[in-house]
Design goal:
The complex is a heterodimer of chains A (about 110) and B (about 120). With about 110 residues, chain A is mainly beta. In chain A, strands 1, 3, 4, 7, 8 and 9 form a 6-stranded mixed sheet that branches. In chain A, strands 2-6-5 form a 3-stranded antiparallel sheet, with no helix packed on it. Chain A is globular, with a radius of gyration of 13 Å. In chain A, about 0% of the residues lie in helices and about 45% in strands. With about 120 residues, chain B is mainly beta. Helix content of chain B is about 0%, strand content about 50%. Chain B contains no helices and 11 strands. In chain B, the strands form 2 sheets. In chain B, strands 2, 4, 5, 6, 9, 10 and 11 form a 7-stranded mixed sheet that branches. In chain B, strands 1-3-8-7 form a 4-stranded antiparallel sheet, with no helix packed on it. Chain B is globular, with a radius of gyration of 14 Å. The chains are: A mainly beta (about 110), B mainly beta (about 120). The interface between A and B is medium-sized, with 26 and 23 residues.
Chain lengths: ~110, ~120
Amino acid sequence: SYELTQPLSVSVALGQTARITCGGNNIGTKNVHWYQQKPGQAPVLVIYRDSNRPSGIPERFSGSNSGNTATLTISRAQAGDEADYYCQVWDSSTVVFGGGTRLTVL
Amino acid sequence: QLQLHESGPGLVKPSETLSLTCTVSGGSISSDNYYWDWIRQPPGKGLEWIGTIYYSGTTYYNPSLQSRVTISVDTSKNQFSLKLRSVTASDTAVYYCARHGGRMSTSGVDYWGQGTLVTVSS
């Protein structure tokens, strides 16, 4: 079965740029989606199809995908960006989630 | 605005069947190209996909749960449902119903229910 690997945690200074990676075999050939989840809330889609932002998601959120790594980039990080982030792909007729990354804004 | 709402027992005994229903409002479950998901999250852990159904009845299941799971749809009620048989404590989780915003291969999950905690305990 396909596996997605994310770092358990990432820290970023307030106002700086955070990068969260999602590793998978030839993930660059797949569509990657990213979700933000704050405590006690349902996840929210922040990036779909590698690099597209749903309406209402700030331009500070961007994504890229190539080779074996997809990356979610959060520019000018704010305290409100502190959350868990999950990547997700569709592989062999199954939905696969990464294990999630806790983003801490210092 | 599309809304999804999970309903069902919050407590299920070990070895019994967990049953949840998701009611969709603000849109039709029979709309072309949208797929409907069940996703769960054990306390303090990550997201786990359970399965997906299309309004026609086509289903996709997580291979690790497939032998115990049935997802069905009732278009007349604008609802879809989850049954998970022979539950154990490891099935304790927040269960979300959700919608894929298009084809499964290209779309993310764009609408989520609020989630409902189901505890498996005697």
